[in-house]
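Risk register update: the risk of archive-format incompatibility is retired. Evidence:
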Amino acid sequence: MILSKINILSKKALLIIFLFLFALIIRAYNINYDNLWFDEILSFWITEPKITLKESFLRHTKIEQIPYLYHFILKINFSIFFYDSYFGRFFSLIFNILGIIFSVKLVKKINNNNSHLLALFLFASNIFLIGYAQEMRPYSMIFFFSSINLYFFYLLDTKKSFQKFNLKYFFISSILQILLIISHPFCLIIFFSLIFYLLLKFFKKEPISKTLFFSTLFVSFFSIFYLSYTFLTLKSFPTWIVQPDLKFFTNFYFSKFFGSRFMGLVHLVILLTLILLFFLKKSKNKNNFLFLYVIIIFLSYLLPIIYGFIFRPIIFPRYIIFVLIPIISLISILVFEIKKKLIKNSIISLLVILNFGNHFAESTFKQFFNKRNFHKPNFEIMSKIITSSKTKNYFINMNMNTKNENEAYMAILNYIDEINKDKINKPIHITKENFQNLNYNKTWVICLPNIVIDKCKKNKIIFKNNLCNYIYVFRWNFI
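Archived output:
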């Protein structure tokens, strides 16, 4: 009997190790294959290690709409290691893996059965999380801070030993919640969900951890001042986001989260069915903490949509990346609450086969067998084309008509210079003034489609007879 249990535990341990290796390899392989895209270039410029912290913060405030925390940590990372996009993206990978660890540990705490193994597989194989593990932007950090906050909140909420006020855990809880809030404005949704959950417990006259209560109260006062400061100092909003249409309400970004419309629909149907079975039909499941997951999912969509109707559209898939924690956790936990083995095993098999099989249609698996396509702008190829041609001059077309046009221009120039820093034969950058005085057919023009594409086309008409050579670097090809 004992040997049998040891054998089962060893098999589980091997499976966990395999899934973590799978998560790590699928994220780390070819992590720096693509060059940085526009937003990553901005982060790369903001966190340049040779500039002061004050100058870095000023760059950030001129060009970003998010708090400085991510760029502060990234700047430290570059100062310790190397100023290279590889280390910036690997930084996101570490946050991504840590987020998976705490999310899975929480699933195991809630239900100490095999549900954490399914959760680990779903987190490890999730297309959306893999994509942002390879991106030098704050979304993997948001995922991590959300997971560790929920994990620590669960410990304080459920363990009787934490019911009394404890100064040490008060500080830990408060710091974690503050770090979450200053990671991204959308992280306030997590915090509001925690407050709503505690209020429900209060009205139901259920015991509430005093440490958790005072910590949340303290952070609530902090949030009031933080929100006031944010709205007073915020200089710009994303203008390209549109309010969700009717099509959105048929998948709630699940097609983005799970890789395709079909995959999204399968996961959405399974999630809604399980929630209906175990919450609305008075299931015997008495784990109140699962209701917090439902609250987070509900508010993650409701609050941004309401804000969009009143003020301006703000909801976008990557801004609510943390919603994958309750989505995947609820699916994993509630599937194992199904009593009929045939149904339970069928759903688990379906989830495993679809999520694993989906990678054969994605570059995550294809890159091991075939040459991977470029999905982001390739400045390295651009530099090779310029340096191998007779015309070595290049000009960056930045007719964006925005307040931060100059900052965006400097950020792109900084990245191109960084790519070519060790090369003897380099493309020669020329300023706008010099460009106007040169013969146009002796100059390459780097144009940014989706940002100034229309003005580039107009310029092409002005420069008749194809006098300019155009490189549409954000269209991933060269014309």
